[in-house]
Automatic annotation (TrEMBL):
<dbReference type="Pfam" id="PF19271">
    <property type="entry name" value="Nis1"/>
</dbReference>
<keyword id="KW-0732">Signal</keyword>
<protein>
    <submittedName>
        <fullName>Uncharacterized protein</fullName>
    </submittedName>
</protein>
<dbReference type="InterPro" id="IPR045469">
    <property type="entry name" value="Nis1"/>
</dbReference>
<feature type="signal peptide">
    <location>
        <begin position="1"/>
        <end position="19"/>
    </location>
</feature>
Length: 144
């Protein structure tokens, strides 16, 4: 019985480890943004080797090096429904399509000038038995 439990745990961990993640495609790390302005956050869902059910996504703004915290300013909180889109990259120079979703968010006018962390938290269910999987990715923005 312990062998079966151990194998089940190993399978669950392996499925989670092989589940592909998200990344922030835009804005790029180090981008300068103005407090009060709107920006487009492009989130890419990397291809998955297992069944994947999207649950939710949150975008936040906080002080640098606060990950995995989302930050004090929640800019978006809701569904994540990435779609296959043309990347505009010429054939042979990169992937012609990507699974992504764009979010337009506003940098609060009260955001202090300086470096801030744009954080994206993602939650999905992975594999045949739908194992919960959560992750946080971030980039640094220079707010002026």
């Amino acid at each position: 019985m312990k062998l079966f439990a151990s194998l089940t745990l190993i399978t669950a961990l392996a499925t989670t480890a092989f589940a592909q993640s998200i990344s922030i495609q835009a804005p790029v790390d180090g981008t300068t943004v103005q407090a009060g302005s709107s920006i487009t956050v492009e989130v890419i869902q990397h291809s998955s080797t297992s069944d994947l059910v999207q649950v939710a996504l949150a975008i936040g703004l906080g002080v640098p090096n606060s990950a995995p915290a989302i930050g004090g300013n929640i800019l978006y909180n809701g569904p994540f429904n990435p779609q296959i889109q043309n990347t505009g990259i010429p054939t042979g120079q990169g992937p012609p399509t990507a699974i992504l979703q764009n979010f337009t968010v506003t940098i609060p006018t009260s955001t202090p000038a300086g470096l801030m962390s744009l954080n994206v938290a993602h939650f999905d269910l992975t594999g045949a038995i739908k194992i919960p999987h959560a992750e946080t990715v971030n980039i640094t923005l220079n707010v002026v």
